[in-house]
UniProtKB/TrEMBL annotation:
Pathway: Purine metabolism; GMP biosynthesis; GMP from XMP (L-Gln route): step 1/1. One of its GO terms (molecular function) is ATP binding. It is an enzyme of class 6 (ligase). It comes from the Bacteria. Keywords: ATP-binding, Glutamine amidotransferase, GMP biosynthesis, Ligase, Nucleotide-binding, Purine biosynthesis. ATP binds at S29, G30, G31, V32, D33, S34, S35. This is GMP synthase [glutamine-hydrolyzing]. It comes from Paracoccus salipaludis. It catalyses: XMP + L-glutamine + ATP + H2O = GMP + L-glutamate + AMP + diphosphate + 2 H(+). The lineage of its organism: Bacteria, Pseudomonadati, Pseudomonadota, Alphaproteobacteria, Rhodobacterales. Homodimer.
Length: 319
């Protein structure tokens, strides 16, 4: 009989067999996939694993601290925390094309990761939390009639460039299976249940030019939105929810004064694997209350909209 406990034992065995006594480095993104991969690999080979967490300055509120605390302090997994926000945000200045953003982030990510991985010394393997849908999406894009919808930065490129072999223990799994494996490994429920977060981070939720000001506003609005969703007990029903800050200021009125601030869009979808998605049917009351909270609590936003596009034809992220 197939069980997750059995899968875990088999995966540990296969990792040991593949890696032997070599060193492995693993890029942690803060997401569920790379976290589960890291904990699984750590179980298999202990301190032969070092994790590198690249903070590109495009993370959500409190995210870097959460990841560092969990891995370094709770799991005792050797972790390099690379704060490279200056570098990334500097390179993204004035960039508004989505593919240029993605490629810039992907390229810098490789450079930075390589630099910090070199500090580990003599690693032979690179671990990635690649899932089955990542494998098929990237294969069909490159093999099909040359349509690249989006350049994902967690597949391809890195290992060849670094002369490393890949360890991808989640390659056969779908998201729900990765979550079950994470639970089996004892990762906290709240962490396992976290919505997916894309490698390029908030950059692709900030259409148009990325500025620190916009990122700060976006982080705060997103935190209020997620808090609302949790308070209403909806978090686990939703596959992914986030705020996008729009590249437009609009006129509003607050108290006796005129405001001229950013508009934002709330996004929430249900999905099985991210390949297709439906927008989430919030009640009007929820939407109204959330809009009021965001506008009252987040300086810099004076208009809130709700994105009711499903995928296809939309994508989940805005870029
Ligand atoms: P889209 O926007 O293509 O997103 O409908 C589908 C799912 O993939 C996530 N996503 C990414 N994840 N690197 C990632 O690790 C990326 O470059 C990337 N782009 C999109 C997105 O958040 C959604 O869950």
């Amino acid at each position: 009989d197939w069980t997750m406990a059995g899968y875990r034992a088999e995966a540990v065995r296969r990792i040991r067999e593949q890696v032997g006594d070599a060193k492995v480095i693993c890029g942690l993104s803060g997401g569920v996939d790379s976290s589960v991969a890291a904990v699984l690999i750590h179980e298999a080979i202990g301190d032969q694993l070092t994790c590198v967490f690249v903070d590109h300055g495009l993370l959500r509120l409190g995210e870097a601290e959460e990841v560092v605390t969990m891995f370094r302090d709770h799991y005792n997994i050797p972790l390099i925390h690379a704060d490279e926000s200056e570098l990334f945000l500097g390179a993204l200045e004035g960039v508004s094309d989505p593919e240029v953003k993605r490629k810039t982030i992907g390229r810098l990510f490789i450079d930075v990761f390589q630099k910090h991985a070199a500090d580990v010394g003599g690693a032979e393997f690179l671990a990635q939390g690649t899932l089955y849908p990542d494998v098929i999406e990237s294969v069909s894009f490159s093999g099909g009639p040359s349509v690249t919808i989006k350049s994902h930065h967690n597949v391809g490129g890195l290992p060849e460039k670094m002369g490393l072999k890949l360890v991808e223990p989640l390659r056969e799994l779908f998201k729900d299976e990765v979550r079950a494996l994470g639970r089996e490994l004892g990762l906290p429920d709240r962490f396992i249940g976290r919505h997916p977060f894309p490698g390029p981070g908030l950059a692709i939720r900030c259409p148009g030019e990325i500025t620190r000001e916009k990122l700060d506003i976006l982080r705060k609005a997103d935190a209020v939105y997620i808090d609302q969703i949790r308070k209403h007990g909806l978090y686990d029903e939703i596959w992914q929810a986030f705020v996008a800050i729009l590249p437009v200021r609009t006129v509003g009125v607050m108290g006796d004064g005129r405001t001229y601030d950013f508009a934002c869009a709330l996004r929430a979808v249900t999905s099985v694997d991210g390949m297709t998605a439906d927008y989430y049917p919030f009640t009007h009351q929820f939407l109204g209350e959330t809009a009021t909270r965001i506008i009252n609590e987040v300086k810099g936003i004076n208009r809130v909209t709700y994105d009711i596009t499903s995928k296809p034809p939309g994508t989940i992220e805005w870029e």
